[in-house]
Amino acid sequence: MSELSKEFDPWLEENGPAALVIREYLVPAEGPDGVVFPATFAASQDGTFKGGYNIDHFSETENVCLIDSVGSQANRIEPLFTKEGYVDLVPKIVVKAGEKTVNLLEAGHRAGDAIVRCSALQEELRAAFRALQDGNAEPLARIAPTSLVFGAWDSRDTQAKVPRLIASTIRAFNVRELTRSAQYVPAAEYVASGLLEEAEDKKTRDTYAERGFIHVPASGAPGGVIAMGGIRRDASLHLAALRLLHANSDGRTKALRRYVLGLALTAFTYSPSSYLRQGCNLVIDPDKPREFKEVYNDGRRVPATVTHSDALEYAQAVVNEFEIGPNRSVDFDKDRAKRDLSGEAANGKARKPRSKN
């Protein structure tokens, strides 16, 4: 432990790096000119965004296309701590909801998710969020430490916000948008053969189409993009934000920061799956080297040398010093869910309305 502390403790000092940054250049598995399917998003309520790919245009030829968002990247990396070799670094918190068992690491809003809010963990998590608002991050770290690494917002209860220490985003530059068309052909001419009656109204025709009984053309749908300016993953680990975490004493604060640093470094240096979705399998560009830097407040950028195995060894060493909370298995509580839906907090008082901001 002492040798590892000598290596990583300087990052926890006020004069340490403000952040660690990774920049990786990616290409489609098919090749640099391959077609990539970005994430798609629903239209905005005010109609300013019509839905589809998120592309910001700066001129006729300059644009930036979001391939994978910071939230999506976090959701791909966080389940790392359910795998062998990593599982003992965090408490195993699972909630049984009917036939399904959900690990807290798989819940979209982490410690602020409805599935844990409506369980026996509700009061404990509320107290942890309250403690965080009062400047003590240790209770939350003992039960849901990855919420400190990847961020959380208890938007339905205490309104406590936990900033992300790790942010990772994949973008493509100067993309050319493609469209695609298709034609569904049914296995038989059900109407013409007299097997089904002629559809006399739109509702019936829509039902026939939905169930696969008639021809259905699909034209002009989004067909992916070609990234003329390349694809890049930019990731940051904000050490300056980590140094803002406190416990109730100096000794516990150091143990807390070491523990969260161990988790954050392990996650940060981990390479998630290259397969993001159908039509989007991205691999490292062999012609452009990966960049990994320590960035200081004065602007210095120093090459970082820590490897994933180094980070994992450090995390395994500091976890015992911190003493994480116990593994827990609880049931989803329907009564708590009903109270939550009615706007009643666990203490019987009405919840404050959720802020629109």
Task: Walk me through this protein's architecture.
The protein is an alpha+beta fold. The protein folds into two domains: 2-173 and 228-341, no CATH class; 177-223, no CATH class. Helix content is 27%, strand content 26%. It is built from eleven helices and 18 strands. Helix 9 packs antiparallel against helix 10 (308-322). The longest helix is centred in the C-terminal third of the chain and has 19 residues, at 250-268.
Query: What does the average pLDDT come to?
Result: 91
Shape: globular
Order of helices and strands: HEEEEEHEEHHHHEEEEHEEHHEEEEHEH
Number of strands: 18
How many domains would you count in the coordinates? 2
Helix content: 25-40%
| Strand content bin | 25-35%
Give the CA-CA distance, first to last residue. 44 Å
Radius of gyration: 25 Å
Largest sheet: 9 strands, antiparallel
Number of helices: 11
Structure classification: alpha+beta
Poorly predicted segments = none
Write the layout of secondary structure elements.
Layout: H1 2-8, E1 19-28, E2 40-41, E3 52-53, E4 55-57, E5 63-68, H2 70-77, E6 93-97, E7 100-103, H3 114-117, H4 122-133, H5 138-143, H6 146-150, E8 152-153, E9 161-162, E10 166-173, E11 175-184, H7 202-211, E12 216-227, E13 231-237, H8 239-242, H9 250-268, E14 275-277, E15 280-284, E16 291-295, E17 301-303, H10 308-322, E18 328-331, H11 334-341
Parallel strand pairs: 6-18
Antiparallel strand pairs: 1-13, 1-15, 1-16, 2-3, 4-5, 5-10, 6-7, 8-9, 10-13, 11-12, 14-15, 16-17
Helix pairs in contact: 9-10
